[in-house]
Design a protein that fits this description.
Elements: H1 2-12, H2 30-39, E1 43-50, E2 53-60, E3 63-69, E4 76-81
Antiparallel strand pairs: 1-2, 2-3, 3-4
């Protein structure tokens, strides 16, 4: 019986599965982020929420770029050539 109790206790303290980052309530939408990129001449490939910013890939003039974007203002924080 003690063994069963220890197993049950061990299952209760097992780590919870990791959850994907979720955009905040006050973040701009993916559509708004895509419009910002389009105005700058980029075409959105992918975008996802990461910690405190949007992060993704876009193309421009045949090159692929990695970007980070402010989630509240839509300002592009970083734009670097994709090296993958």
């Amino acid at each position: 019986m003690k063994t069963l109790a220890l197993i049950a206790t061990g299952l209760m303290i097992a780590p919870a599965p990791a959850r994907a980052d979720q955009p905040g309530q006050d973040w701009i939408s993916i559509g708004q982020a895509e419009r910002v990129l389009h105005r700058e001449g980029y075409r959105l490939i992918e975008i996802e929420p990461k910690d405190d910013h949007w992060e993704g890939e876009a193309t421009r003039h045949g090159r692929t770029w990695d970007f980070r974007m402010s989630p509240k203002t839509g300002r592009i924080i970083a734009m670097e050539p994709d090296t993958d």
